[in-house]
Specification:
The structure holds 2 protein chains of 2 kinds.
Chain A (H helix, E strand, L loop, with lengths): L8 E10 L2 E11 L4 E5 L6 H9 L6 E6 L2 E2 L10 E4 L11 H5 L1 H5 L4 H14 L15 H13 L5 E5 L7 H18 L2 E6 L2 H7 L2 E6 L2 E6 L1 H6 L4 H7 L3 E11 L4 E6 L2 E6 L10 E6 L4 E5 L16 E11 L3 E8 L2 E8 L12 E6 L4 E4 H4 L1
Parallel strand pairs in A: 3-8, 3-9, 6-7, 7-8
Antiparallel strand pairs in A: 1-2, 1-4, 4-5, 9-10, 11-12, 11-14, 12-13, 14-20, 15-19, 16-17, 16-19, 17-18
Chain B lengths: L3 H8 L14 H14 L1 H30 L8 H7 L3 H33 L2 H12 L8 H10 L4 H6 L8 H25 L3 H9 L4 H30 L2 H6 L6 H10 L4 H25 L22 H30 E3 L3 E4 L7 H34 L5 H8 L1 H4 L2 H11 L11 H26 L2 H9 L4 H12 L1 H17 L4 H4 L7 H10 L3 H29 L5
Classes of the chains: A alpha+beta, B mainly alpha.
């Protein structure tokens, strides 16, 4: 989904400061119709402010918000065609479920019957049929979340905005609710922006993830792009564990698309992935824990037990092992260096114990960052 | 100026949830209560001591009023009651009092709401101004408003003179204006605290669903503030009903229950009929107070947690803003005018008639004497009352004592029982040996404690509900007994509540009139009483000067107390 000239939502050079404190510093992004995009980033990165300015609750200093071809900067919130779910839901505590969901419909002047039907339809959509008469304080957190969702959808918004909607729920409910959001998004073909600080949440439900730092977009891409081809070392570390290896390009094999990099662990051969690298260039390898396969306990099967000679084979010693069922997570020392290694399906080779020497192999499919990008 | 300290302690009371109120199996509770007390002798002794004090100085005098109304001359008769209900003058007093409360309450509550709203969402430079104005009337004795209104709008008042129009504020208009202006702070504090707890995202949710600001105000803000508004209204109603100073100064002869019961005692020495009046005041007050405290719940609409995100304020629509702004500005100017008139009156020979500057009004020995007495008695009563109230709060919240609910109800009755009833009760109860206290300083102090105990109990209980019990359990776990835990752990944590209660009690005692007017003797004249007498005698200049002294000494004592806490480093407890 490459950004095109006529994206559904265009954020153009957006700036916002509170006093001297710049929150958003000239941000650009484009979102397509039907996408579910997560805004994620460390706190203070401006993700909530950006969402609130799309909703119309925060006035921009400069820049344009173009929704469905129309500049909406100066429109009042309900004229923008946005539906909003707040972090604390902001349900009207003195109104019943149906009055909450029907609040906007009533303002539109719809008839009682119309409102009743639409409310029932929406409650059905969020799997709360028949609960219209309940008071808000009679609902569980998850149910309140569903009511908030139904209310935000009541006016058929062009785009649904969710501000950390799951952060008040317990872990299990969070997983259920994110699946629910995904289901409703698909069912209605909705365009959704989802602000979160939970990277797993973002990765698991989004069609694209927008990572923000310091009021700017650091990377906007699909979860796999973000994880496998992070634009910076920061992103690499933000979305998962990483073993960064610094090195220099020793040689480039253009025909095979393989480059040889000298690292503190010795030379490694990795795929260049179309990157145009020069011999001698300083690079950083983004080695994920799952890029490293444990071959065996220093057994020669596939592992030489010697220092690597470019085929990514290493010998190290287990510092500690954390067994979590489907995965064993190892901290491994190789000389001065330490690596995090994850072994999936530990039943196959068993769990290695602390102090045991093991052989490992680093995949060629690690991501390479140029020194400048790695900053 | 900062009345914040005094207010802080009093804005939480009444708002805390009250666990332990559920009626436990009465008999079992009693048994367990006594058993627990037996294990802790110091707690038991303190409890017994405080309970005796409450029985003697709260229950006994009020009971005496009830008894006196039924046994006016030692023999049971309902003649005073039948006379009261037979119509005519007595019933008119009752209806006037109720009517006054019915008029003053909605106006006060509406103004307080406007102030609370504008102090949050009005033009930024005016917010503090509105907030201060809404609290300012708290520092004066209530009837100072009546005094200023007499100077302004009396038959020879400044307005008549200046504009050359025949007018008089005496009677209903004067009483209503004086009451409304004086009760604004209380209603403001209650409504403001509810408004502070409103989730700003609710406004935004309404806006995103197409709600205009007027609509949001009507369908979201006001309904959510309703419990606070209702509580404030009930409290203002009780105060208006019981108000003594304003109706007697500017009532212009319109009879009200509180004023007439005073005249019955002082003028006709008819304690029997005065007691009937008192009962007629007491019953609606208690009923309303019960509603206020146990039925209306302010936290009814507490929304779920999660940081509300609204860094940005949304401009208020002119249709909402302009009328509210005008109302608040006019009211603020009225309040400031009252203060200006008092200051003007204090420094001129006869304000409005002979506006020559003079300091003569300040050098009246009897005024200084009364002020000294006021400070002295208020100090004693606030210290004793707050200590007792805090201990009582601790016992009520943390200890199992028999008859807990009743104890709580009695200790909080000071809020509800009109001052005139305490005054009349004290006269009946403590006029003869062995407790012939009438005319002594102790009876003044005691009457003040009775009226302010509720504040420290409330503040203390509210604070204790916030302090996790496990903190005390940790102290017990480390070997400390109840007393040590209270002194070393609870008291320091409760300091803000303790201090707030003390400041409030002090200010209240400095300004109170309705109870002490019955029990104070000439040799223990008090400042509010002296102002009242001076105003009645037409010595307006001296009355203004003493009022000013009183206001200044309230500010001064607030400042001193604040400095003391800062020195002690308790500010952020």
């Amino acid at each position: 989904m490459a950004p095109s000239a006529a994206s559904f939502l265009v954020l153009k050079n957006i700036r916002k400061s509170y006093g001297d404190h710049a929150i958003i510093k000239g941000l650009n992004a484009e979102i397509e119709k039907g996408e579910l995009v997560s805004f994620i980033g460390p706190s203070g990165c401006g993700k909530s402010t950006l969402l609130r300015s799309i909703a119309g609750f925060t006035k921009l200093d400069s820049g344009q918000i173009i929704l469905d071809g129309k500049i909406v900067n100066d429109d009042v919130p309900h004229k923008r065609g946005t539906g909003m779910v707040f972090q604390n839901y902001a349900l009207f505590p003195h109104l019943s479920v149906e009055s909450n969901v029907g609040y906007g419909l009533k303002i539109l002047g719809q008839s009682k019957a119309q409102i009743r039907d639409r409310v029932e339809e929406l409650l059905g959509l969020v799997h709360l049929p028949g609960l219209g008469k309940r008071r808000i304080d009679q609902l569980s957190g998850g149910q309140q979340q569903r009511v908030a969702l139904a209310r935000a959808l009541s006016l058929n918004p062009k785009i649904l905005l969710l501000d950390e909607p799951l952060s008040n729920l317990d872990a299990n409910l969070r997983v259920t609710m994110r699946a629910e959001i995904k289901r409703i998004q698909k069912q209605l073909g909705l365009t959704v922006i989802f602000v979160t600080h939970d990277r797993e949440e973002a990765m698991s439900i989004s069609s694209r993830v927008m990572i923000m730092t310091g009021g700017l977009v650091e990377q906007l891409g699909s979860p796999t792009e973000i994880y496998d081809r992070p634009a910076t070392e920061f992103i690499a570390g933000f979305v998962g564990h990483v073993n960064p290896l610094e090195g220099n390009v020793q040689s480039v094999n253009g025909t095979q698309g393989i480059i040889r990099v000298s690292t503190q662990l010795g030379p490694l051969e990795v795929f260049s992935n179309g990157g145009d690298f020069q011999t001698g260039e300083a690079v950083k390898l983004i080695v994920r824990p799952e890029h490293i396969t444990i071959c065996a306990s220093q057994s020669p099967a596939g592992c030489t037990g010697k220092a690597p000679d470019g085929n990514g084979q290493l010998v190290g010693q287990v510092i500690d092992a954390m067994y979590t069922g489907s995965i064993v997570k190892y901290n491994v020392s190789i000389g001065e260096s330490k690596l995090i290694v994850e072994q999936y399906n530990p039943r196959e080779c068993g769990v290695f114990s602390d102090g045991q020497r093991i052989s490992m192999k680093i995949s060629r499919d690690v991501h390479i960052l140029r020194k400048g990008e790695a900053a | 100026m900062d009345t914040g300290v005094g207010i802080k302690g009093t804005d939480t009371p009444g708002f805390a949830g009250m666990p332990g109120r559920n009626s436990l199996g009465c008999l079992n509770g009693l048994k367990a209560g006594f058993a627990d007390l037996a294990k802790e002798p110091v707690v038991a002794i303190t409890t017994v001591f405080i309970v005796c004090g409450m029985l003697l100085f709260i229950v006994y005098p009020i009971a005496m009023v009830l008894i006196k109304s039924l046994y006016p001359d030692g023999v049971f008769t309902l003649s005073d009651y039948s006379q009261f209900f037979s119509g005519g003058f007595h019933l008119r007093c009752f209806f006037n009092s109720v009517l006054l409360a019915c008029i003053a309450t909605p106006i006060t509550t509406f103004l307080a709401f406007a102030f609370a709203f504008m102090a949050r969402k009005g033009p930024r430079p005016l917010r503090t101004f509105f907030r201060l104005n809404a609290i300012l009337p708290f520092v004066t004795p209530p009837f100072v408003f009546a005094l200023a209104l007499i100077i302004l709008g009396g038959r020879n008042g400044i307005i008549s003179k200046f504009f050359g129009i025949e007018m008089s504020l005496f009677g209903w208009p004067g009483v209503i204006i004086a009451q409304v202006l004086h009760f604004i702070p209380l209603a403001f504090i209650m409504i403001d605290s509810v408004m502070a707890s409103l989730n700003p995202n609710l406004d935004e949710a309404a806006a995103s669903l197409g709600g205009s600001q007027l609509r949001t105000l009507g369908t979201v803000t006001v309904p959510l503030c309703l419990p606070g508004i209702l509580k404030a209204g009930l409290m203002v109603f009780i105060l208006s009903l019981a108000d003594f100073g304003n109706p007697s100064l500017i009532g212009g002869g319109v009879p009200f229950l509180a004023t007439e019961s005073y005249l019955l005692v002082i003028g006709q020495n008819d304690l029997g009929m005065a007691s009937v009046y008192s009962v007629m005041l007491l019953v609606p007050s208690l009923v309303l107070y019960y509603l206020h405290r146990y039925v209306v719940h302010e936290d009814k609409f507490k929304t779920i947690g999660g940081a509300p995100m609204a860094r940005e304020e949304h401009p208020v629509h002119p249709l909402v803003k302009v009328p509210m702004l005008i109302i608040c500005i006019v009211t603020s100017l009225a309040i400031l005018t009252i203060f200006a008139v008092i200051i003007g009156g204090a420094f001129t020979r006869i304000i409005g008639i002979n506006n020559t500057f003079t300091l003569a009004h300040f050098s009246v020995a009897s005024s200084i004497f009364a002020l000294k007495n006021s400070i002295e008695t208020s100090f004693y009563s606030s210290v004793i009352g707050t200590v007792a109230g805090t201990i009582l709060a601790f016992i009520l919240v943390r200890k199992t004592v028999p008859g807990k609910m009743l104890l709580e109800f009695i200790s909080l009755s000071g809020f509800a029982v009109p001052g005139t009833i305490i005054g009349i009760g004290f006269i009946i109860a403590f006029n003869n040996p062995p407790l012939a206290l009438v005319g002594t300083m102790s009876i003044i102090v005691l009457s003040m404690i009775v009226r302010t105990l509720a504040v420290s109990v409330e503040a203390g209980m509210a604070k204790l509900y916030q302090i996790d019990k496990s903190i005390e359990e940790a102290s017990h776990n480390l070997g400390a007994g109840s007393v040590r835990t209270f002194m070393k752990v609870v008291l320091p944590l409760m300091f803000t509540a303790f201090f707030g209660g003390m400041v409030y009690s002090f200010i209240y005692s400095m300004n109170t009139l309705s109870a002490v007017i019955f029990v104070a003797a000439p040799r223990y004249n008090l400042a509010p009483l002296a102002i009242f007498q001076l105003a009645n005698e037409g010595r307006i200049g001296q009355a203004c000067a003493l009022s000013l002294f009183l206001i200044l000494s309230v500010f001064l004592s607030l400042g001193i107390l604040k400095a003391v806490t800062r020195c002690l480093g308790f500010k952020n407890v």
